[in-house]
Amino acid sequence: MAETKNIGLPVKEPNNNCSDDNCPWHGHLKVRGRTFTGIVVSSKPHKTAIVRWHYYNYVKKYERYERRNTKISAFNPDCISSKEGDTVTIAECRPISKTKKFVVVDKK
Prior knowledge:
The protein is an all-beta fold. Helices cover about 0% and strands about 45% of the residues. The protein has strands spanning about 30-40, 50-60, 65-75, 85-95, 100-105. The protein is elongated. The two termini are about 25 Å apart.
């Protein structure tokens, strides 16, 4: 079994192994910056998970909150392989492609 490295976040290590260079656990990808928790909306693109989470925005004119959401493409390594409906934690990393600047680091 290949050794997993410490990525510097309080998340559990994956049970499976992979040989991908873009994996933060088994490859050379470093994570930094922001982390988010959301739900996987789609995992159809190859090694990609579309993650969505909701947040509230205050509208001063009406003195109320409105609900908004954000969708981000994240790299989905083989050792985690999250599917639709999974709650995942994503972390910021260097740009992997045009739209992928986050990587899935934990599946709950």
